[in-house]
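The pair is set out directly below:
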Amino acid sequence: MPLPLGFTGARIDRADRLRTDAEAFAAATQDPRATCLAMDGIDPVPGERGGLIWEPLDPADDRALLLLGIDDAGAPRFVRAPAPGARIDARSRTVMRLIPLLSPEEAALYGGARSLVDWHARHGFCAVCAAPTAIFRGGWGRKCGNCGSEHFPRVDPVVIMLAEYQDRVLVGRQPGFPPGFFSALAGFVEPGESLEEAVARELFEEAGIQVSDVVYVASQPWPFPSSLMIGCRAVAHDTALTIDTTELEAAMWVERAEVRAALAGEMGASFMAPPPLAIARYLLEDWAG
């Protein structure tokens, strides 16, 4: 299996100790080895040969520094907070054309930075009293100057799963997918339910099937804008489908040989498989193997 999964594998010490120590954080910003990730909004600025660009800290830039962590060489790594009032399209995926130019470690560092910058852009005001908030904890929180409430970057859990029945597995497609593209079904975990319950509910709501024996496979951060994709498998009780057309355009059961053909990109395959970056492909490879 190809490891790490997309947006995982950042070899960096997140340095929580510096987030709560104002003097140590200030010292890190003065470290001559410190660098800042070059960003265009929430997209990376590509280098001439691909890869990320890390720049020396610019004292003329008054945007707040957000600590990403300390690299293997002991150098602090930062990204700048967005300017107040900046407009950001959190779900934009124009970066996808640049991701293949990044190493897995770079993609992971960028993914974390993207989600963090986006969170700050959307949380300038307190959710309790609506007063302005200020950055604290090295960029990993915002605090209200009025009521004192503290707010922290959120992660939205999403289950993404394959339902299997004997030697077949269920794949589906949404209306916006490219022609012929099918993937694993997915949905957000709701308050008050376990991962296993979320898998069963989503498969029933979207495809009308009952499942049991839910097992965890792997997880992946997905920075569009801040999801954690939790990959699972489940055993379907039968193959009769009732598709929710508000969620899916189509769904179908495919045999193991069909999945292998799609993963190999064979001409005439019954569907187009997800790209290597996505955990959906990992799930299909794991099942097909």
